Amino acid sequence: MPRQTELPDKPVRVGAAPRRKKRSPGARVRRLVRKLLGLSKTKAPQASKAPEGPVFTHLWRAAVAATHYRNRLSIHQRNVLLFQMGKVASSALQIALVDRGINCFHCHTLRQDEEAHRLSQLFETPPNLVLAARDLTMLSQHTALNMLARWYRTSEVPPDRKLKVITLTRDPVTRFVSHLLQRVGRDVRPLVDWHRAFSGGRTDGGDLGLAAAEMFGQVARLVTEAKPSIDVEAACVKAATLASALQPRQPFIAEGVASALAPLTWFDRQFRPLFDIDVTGLPEFRTSGLAYRDLGSVEVLVVRFEDLGRNLGEVARHVGLATLDLPARNVTAEKPHAAPILEAAKAFFATELGVAFEQELRRTSYGRACGYDLKTGLSLRSTQ
Prior knowledge:
Elements: H1 25-37, H2 54-65, E1 79-83, H3 90-99, E2 103-107, H4 112-124, H5 129-153, E3 163-169, H6 172-186, H7 189-198, H8 208-226, H9 232-244, H10 251-275, H11 285-288, E4 290-294, E5 298-304, H12 312-318, H13 331-334, H14 338-348, H15 352-362, H16 365-369
Parallel strand pairs: 1-2, 1-3, 3-5
Antiparallel strand pairs: 4-5
Helix pairs in contact: 2-5, 4-5, 6-10, 7-8, 8-9, 8-10, 8-14, 8-15, 9-10
């Protein structure tokens, strides 16, 4: 007779209650203690849902998932969109707000055409670390923030749940120098390689001050010839055409030209389509460096970067805080290779070409609206 290897199934009584799971010894001890002390087992309260509803909740979660501070944000905290052109102390401002319990979302672009280009790169380029770690995340975040901003514009929310938007302007002259420092700080080789090729191999490219001075001169010639002080849009097209026509090709100079002109059109390209605010239509901003607009479920504060320090109280009140502090450091001067490049910049902007370049940028419609046409010379006292 074959050996029985399994126990026969026990008969189950019809209608019997399902067997209770056997408690562990620890659970039994805890249950006994609760009974002796007259305590009842309490369940952790479930977090209440956001009052804005499911569409907002999904968009908010998508935006949070793509931030560096996802573990520090809560759907029940105030939401701030720090939407700006970059090089305006925005990273320091974001950290300060997050540290104070504010959901601060930080971005430079929310344009569909730029994200469409990024999407094409993701689909068509062989996967690499930059695409996987940066571009895929940025596509997700920018898409969610664009939709979230448009949701606020067409929805009604309680007064304490409004979206607070902060944006900043900056002098295009000092931003141009600061942006070059950022580019060189990340990778000095493009500047070195460009100068070696530009000099015909007569230098090894190791003199960063000389390389920066030559770069300033090349960019300034193209920009001054394009005349942005007369017509910014036409000048952007002309300057890009002049840069692309350089022989041999000089993509480093073309990028420099784009960097110099970027602040002049950022508000028209990025900010105005979403929030219908024209920086040239804020008459009080030229003198005060501060402008506020209430758009219903969105409240916007425009701050001149150069006056950020003295207007931190207004920024704090805008987001519902009593006070706000930023580190008083000149981060620009601390960047790698900053010393020779800053010296070259000071020397260049004292030349006739440097003055002409400065005036072309500051006397544009953007520069006049922000009061930058009242400035002369180069001052790089900044926090970023």
